[in-house]
Amino acid sequence: xxxxxxxxxxxxxxxxxxxxxxxxxxxxxxxxxxxxxxxxxxxxxxxxxxxxxxxxxxxxxxxxxxxxxxxxxxxxxxxxxxxxxxxxxxxxxxxxxxxxxxxxxxxxxxxxxxxxxxxxxxxxxxxxxxxxxxxxxxxxxxxxxxxxxxxxxxxxxxxxxxxxxxxxxxxxxxxxxxxxxxxxxxxxxxxxxxxxxxxxxxxxxxxxxxxxxxxxxxxxxxxxxxxxxxxxxxxxxxxxxxxxxxxxxxxxxxxxxxxxxxxxxxxxxxxxxxxxxxxxxxxxxxxxxxxxxxxxxxxxxxxxxxxxxxxxxxxxxxxxxxxxxxxxxxxxxxxxxxxxxxxxxxxxx
Amino acid sequence: xxxxxxxxxxxxxxxxxxxxxxxxxxxxxxxxxxxxxxxxxxxxxxxxxxxxxxxxxxxxxxxxxxxxxxxxxxxxxxxxxxxxxxxxxxxxxxxxxxxxxxxxxxxxxxxxxxxxxxxxxxxxxxxxxxxxxxxxxxxxxxxxxxxxxxxxxxxxxxxxxxxxxxxxxxxxxxxxxxxxxxxxxxxxxxxxxxxxxxxxxxxxxxxxxxxxxxxxxxxxxxxxxxxxxxxxxxxxxxxxxxxxxxxxxxxxxxxxxxxxxxxxxxxxxxxxxxxxxxxxxxxxxxxxxxxxxxxxxxxxxxxxxxxxxxxxxxxxxxxxxxxxxxxxxxxxxxxxxxxxxxxxxxxxx
DNA sequence: CCGGCATCGGAGAGCGCTCTCCACCCCGTG
DNA sequence: CACGGGGTGGAGAGCGCTCTCCGATGCCGG
Lengths: 349, 349
Known about the structure:
The structure is a homodimer.
Chain A: H1 14-21, H2 25-33, H3 40-53, H4 59-66, E1 71-77, H5 88-94, H6 96-109, E2 115-121, H7 124-135, E3 142-146, H8 153-159, E4 164-167, E5 177-181, H9 183-196, E6 202-206, H10 212-227, E7 235-237, H11 242-255, E8 261-264, H12 267-279, E9 289-294, E10 306-309, H13 312-328, E11 336-339, E12 342-344
Parallel strand pairs in A: 1-2, 1-3, 3-4, 4-5, 5-11, 6-7, 6-8, 8-9, 9-10
Antiparallel strand pairs in A: 10-12
Helix pairs in contact in A: 1-2, 1-3, 6-13, 9-10, 11-12
The first copy, chain A, binds a DNA duplex through residues 13-15, 23-27, 29-30, 33, 35-39, 42, 57-58, 60-67.
C-alpha cells in the first residue's frame, strides 16, 4: 500500500508511469503501442505501473505527433432552406434512413475503437465548418450522406485532399469513393413482380426528381415496364415522406381509377399510399398491389409491405471500410461499390 | 502574386502565419483567440496572413494546452444482451426517440461550434471505453441516454469526476444532473381527458417495468384514474415497440371486451394498438378512444393520434446546456430540470 | 578471445499551440 | 524633465506524447 502516486498534480502522464515502473518514457510508450520488442518482465512492470497509476494516454498529445485522431466525421449534407418548417437537424434525424446508416457505420467502427462525430452541413458556412474540422485534424476523414444530388460538399472535400466516402453516386462525376445501390435493378425487380402477379395497369409514386436515386428508381421502373409491354406508366412525384405518398396515391386513383398495382419509391410513402387506399375502400393487394422500397424495419404497415430491400447497414459499413482504407493509405484508389437489392415479398403485393 | 508560402512542408502553422505577417506567434494567437488588445493594423496584417497561408489551427495542439476539446460524447447506454436479434446499434437508431434527442442536442451544440461524438455503451467493456474516452480528453463531457434504469454508466462517470448530464432521473439517486419529463403529470393529463370524454372502462398498455419512465406513466395514470373513481385499471406490459402495442391491445380486448378507452405509454405502441383495433373491427375513437405518449412526428396514424407531448428536442437542448455549464464551471451545482408535458388532442381520443 | 551483429532501453528533439513573463513605448503627472 | 503606469508585442517555457538515434549488452562465429 505504498503511496508512490504521481507527485505531479493532475492526471498521471507517461512520465509518471515511467517513474513508477523504473523505466523511461520511451519504453512505456513502446509497451502501450506494442511497437518493437520489450523484455517480458519489463512489460509486466509497465503494466503494473499503468494499473497502479490509473494512466490513460492523452489523445491530444498523441495525435499531435501521430497526426491521427481515431475519429471520423459522419456528415449529413443537404439544403437547410428547403421546404420550411422543421429545422434541418429535426428532419434529418426523424428520417429512419439516417438511423440505419448511422447504425451501420457505428456497427463497423465501434469494434475498431473509432467513433463518429456527428455533423450537419446545410449551408455554405456549415460546409466550410466541415472542411475546417477535418483540416484542423479533428477527424481523419468523412463519411458523407447527401440528401440531394447537387451537394457541393463532396467537391470541397476532394479539392482539399481530404479522405472521404460518399453515400450514393454524386450527380456530377468527381474522383471520390462511394457506395450505392443498383436502384434500376431494384425497380426492375418490382416491375417484374407486379407483372408476374397479373397487374395490368400499374403506376408509380417517385421520389423528388432532384435526387439521383429517385430518378434511377423511376426510370428503371419505367424501362422494365416497357420491356413488359407497358410503355406508359403514370407517375407522380413525392418527397419521400408519408404524407406525399398518401396525396400521390389519391391523385393517381383519381386520374387513373383502373390502377391495380403501384411501385412506391420508398417505404414511408408506401405507408401513406396504403392509408389512402384504405380511405378509398380499396383492398390491398386484391384491388391494388403495392410495392415499396428500402425495407425499413421501422415501417409497420397493414398489410405487411412487399418491398425492395436496400441493405443500408451493410452499405454504411462498407463506406466506413472504404474510408478507413483511404485514411490508412492516401494512395488508395478511388472505388465505387454498387450493392444489389433484393425483393422481399410480404402481403401487399 | 508573391510565392511566400510556408517554406516548411505540411499544413501552415502559427509560425508560418507569424512569419508572413511579420509578427510573433503569440500575437497571431492573440488575434485568433481575440484575447487582449492588439493594434488594429496588426490584426489586419494577421488576418491577411491567415487568408494567404490558408491557416487552420491544429486542434490537437490547442487542446493539449487548453485541456479542452470542444466536443462532447453523446452516449446511448443500454443492455446489449436484451431480447436477441438485432444488434444494439440497429435497435438504438431505429427508435425515433433517439433521433429526436440527437436532433435537439445537435440543434443546441451546432451554433456553438461543438460537435457530438456518437458512442454506444452496452457492456462493461464499452462502458469503460466511454470513461476512458473522456479521461483521455477526447471529449469534455458526456450526454447520457440510458435505455433502462439500472444503468451503471452514470455512476462510473460520477466516480471518475467527469462532467455528464443524464436523460431521465437515474433509478437510484446519484449526484448527477439530469433532465426529465413529469411523466406522472403527463399520464394524469391522459386520464383526465379520457374521463372527460366519457370513457367508463379504461385500460393501459405500459412500457417495460424496468424503465422508470414507464413505471411513472403507469402509476401516474392509475392514480389519476383512482382519483376519478376508477381504482382498478387493466394494464398490460409492452416493450415500446409497435408489435407489442398490437399484441397488448388484442389481449386487453379479449380479457375486457367492454374497454372504451386506452392510454398507451408511447406512440409506437399506440400505432400498433390502432392496428389491432382496426383488425377487431372497432372504431376509434367511437368504440375505443386511444391516447399515446411522446408526440412522435414520425408516427403517422389513422386516425391521427391524440397524445401526451414530450418536448424531446427542448429537453435534449437543455441537457446540452447543462453539460456546457458543468464543463465551463467544474463547481456548477448538480441540477435537475423537470419538463411539463402537454396534451395534444387530435382525433383518436 | 575478440570483433561484429542483433537486440533492446534511454535520451532528447520536436509536434503546434497557449500563456506567463518581460521589455518596451507612450502617455500624463509632479 | 524625471518618473510611474497602462497598454502592447515578443520570448520562451511547457502541454504529453512519439520516434529517431545511440549506446549498452549479449551472443555468435572466426
